[in-house]
Specification:
Order of helices and strands of chain A: HEEEHHEEHHEHHEEEEHHEEHHEH
Oligomer: homodimer
Shape of chain A: globular
Mean pLDDT of chain A: 97
Strand content of chain A: 5-15%
Number of strands of chain A: 13
Largest interface: A-B, 51 and 51 residues
Strand order of the largest sheet of chain A: 3-4-5
Number of helices of chain A: 12
Structural class of chain A: mainly alpha
Radius of gyration of chain A: 20 Å
Distance between the termini of chain A: 11 Å
Chain lengths: ~400, ~400
């Protein structure tokens, strides 16, 4: 297998398409922070500042600066630093958590109802510490991480709408993100402080969320690990989320030399591809019902960019770590689908949203939920996998 | 124009298709209340009880009982009575508001974060009073109505996530629903107690939400009546909602002999059809952006059953009250689209969700947001319009 053309294409995509698009369009030079709601040509269609999107931009520019592509890119570092200053000054609450949304000027606009604001703050600050070695960033990373862990038992806080009659579930998202956060903190802060939480989260993901009979990762399971097959929420699947989760686990397994864990995660990766792929039109479904019953989500059969980014990474990780050709086939399939369907022919970046047939339903390049994150992370991590494969 | 075949078809649809489907499948004979999550064949795919859906079933069976089709249908009345008993016993909170969701057994599962739970409780109880004359129902209708009006300034209560930095908007939904509620209370309870609120709501809808330059009804406007064209929330449109709103206004105008109001609502109805129709694949878009910028909603270009139900009523109302042929054309177009695209070929009822091309993306007949309400209401009210037209 000659990886050279792939490496060339992914480097071009990252360095000549995706990074320049965001660097040119996302910075709010007047008020600080970033615009993430960017139309097809990069123009701003909504000026609000959504915390997940903001911190992900900080994380990504800081991570790119520390990467093999970041040498001398002080401009990337400065973007991350400026973003950090804006977000800590405007979005941080007294208890160390982050509100969900600021208005353009930086005034808090939506309360801290999402624990993932804290998660991405921790990742962004940690990446800045790795990039600079400056203690301030480490301190904030630990503060946000502490807030995230503290909030896991009641992530929505006072905004929680559930009453005692509601079936209780563990959420796959909380655990998979914690598994990844542990790895990020370890890499960026060079600490083993979160290793126990990280290992426990990985055990929870692997032991509780994969349904052995149906062979797919559930998003919600009962606290005792049993599956609720009677309700839509209990049967809810998000195939791209499961694939993302599995490369997090493989990454952890490689760091800790845990071959058994890698073997198991690769096995689940294969199962996830089988369950989540659309046999008719290609690509990976956004949401599914474990028993094929109706999805309560209107957009369930759409094809989104990010599950395909995560699938790309998962396939490459599994192929590199197991050598099994089935994962190479999955990579080639997803790569071909992604570049032919999501890549925008004009103005750069990728479309985010396709209908089941693979036609764009939106021409936006960024939004309330799409920012400078999944795509550049996919390109960067995929490049690392490919280079390792090529060097064998 | 010979209305006979239309009347025949709509009566068959209501009496031989839609009512029997729900009557057979929606009643939970074990725990009380209703199932609304019904798969294509009527089987239950989720047992949870969503308050909007529950009260709408009560409202619809009680309304049908009082209608020209309800003579001797004590079975319909009993369904509404039983539903009422279940919901008042289990879903009503001490302050007269209603929680959003019960579990199958009737235990409160999600708190009262939606004001529309109270709205549909008021409508259901009022319809039962009209059907029976029993004071208990009137009392509950007034209680729920009072709760609804009380909550309008802060509809989400303690679950409100907005902070001071958030742009404030008036919501079209709150006012249009109040306009309709006023008419329902007047019809059912024979009271003019809510006439002032109703008139004020109608004035707000007509004076503030219609953009005279773009000629379309906005969903969110600033409290001073100015339009926010800079944000997605400010530019958000829901064409079917606007059409529903306009037949509420025409209904009010007819009751009060206000020809000028009718004239204006018909004019807006025409504008709404022009703005919201899909010139390529037919039907009415679910969501739009007033300036054609990207919609933040993934499902924006889908075709949903209910906007087509509301469009049918709006077109017939406007045609009957103005006599203008353009509204007859609109009715014929929407009627043809609806019956050829939404009507399910097997097991009865209609599909709820089509992609932009008009292909079903879900085969469900009921769900968390689809119940025994928009379709039977559309058939019943359309039949009345057609019979009045036919009798000229």
């Amino acid at each position: 297998m000659d990886w050279t053309p792939f490496i060339q294409r992914y480097e071009d995509e990252l360095l000549k398409n995706v990074i320049p698009f965001w660097q040119e369009h996302c910075i709010d030079r007047e008020c600080g922070g970033f615009f993430s709601c960017l139309d097809r040509d990069g123009s701003v269609y909504d000026p609000n500042k959504y915390m997940w999107m903001q911190w992900r931009i900080v994380y990504m520019f800081a991570t790119l600066y520390s990467s093999e592509y970041g040498k001398g890119r002080e401009d990337w570092l400065q973007i991350a630093r400026d973003g950090y200053d804006f977000l800590v000054a405007h979005g941080r609450l007294d208890d160390g958590s982050y509100c969900f949304q600021l208005n353009r000027k930086g005034e808090p606009a939506m309360g801290p109802f999402s624990i993932f604001s804290d998660c991405f703050a921790a990742m962004g600050a940690a990446a800045l510490f790795r990039a600079t070695g400056e203690e301030m960033y480490k301190h904030e990373a630990e503060s946000a991480m502490t807030s995230y862990i503290r909030r896991i038992p009641n992530p929505k806080g006072k905004y929680e709408k559930s009453l005692p009659g509601k079936e209780r579930y563990l959420s796959h998202g909380s655990y998979m993100i914690l598994a990844n956060l542990g790895c990020e903190m370890r890499d960026c802060l060079d600490t083993d402080r979160y290793d126990a939480e990280c290992r426990q989260a990985i055990n929870t993901v692997m032991d509780k969320f994969f349904h052995p009979g149906l062979r797919v990762i559930f998003e919600n399971v009962r606290p005792d690990g049993s599956f609720d097959l009677d309700s839509s929420e209990g049967r809810f699947l998000n195939p791209g989320h499961g694939l993302e989760s599995m490369w997090f686990v493989m990454r952890y397994g490689e760091t800790h030399g845990d071959r058994k864990l890698i073997r198991r995660a690769a096995d689940y990766t294969d199962a996830q591809f089988r369950f989540g792929s659309d046999p008719e039109f290609g690509g990976i479904f956004y949401f599914m019902d474990a028993l094929g019953k109706p999805s309560p989500e209107l957009q369930h059969d759409m094809k989104l960019w990010w599950p395909h980014n995560e699938a790309t990474i998962a396939a490459l990780y599994a192929y590199r770590l197991t050598g099994e050709p089935r994962f190479l086939d999955r990579f080639l399939e997803i790569d071909a689908y992604s570049f032919s369907h999501f890549r925008a022919p004009l103005y750069g970046e990728w479309f985010g949203y396709l209908n089941r047939r693979g036609e764009p339903t939106h021409l936006l390049k960024g939004g309330k939920w799409k920012t400078f994150f999944h795509l550049p992370r996919c390109l960067l991590i995929s490049l690392r996998q490919m280079k390792l494969l090529a060097s064998r």
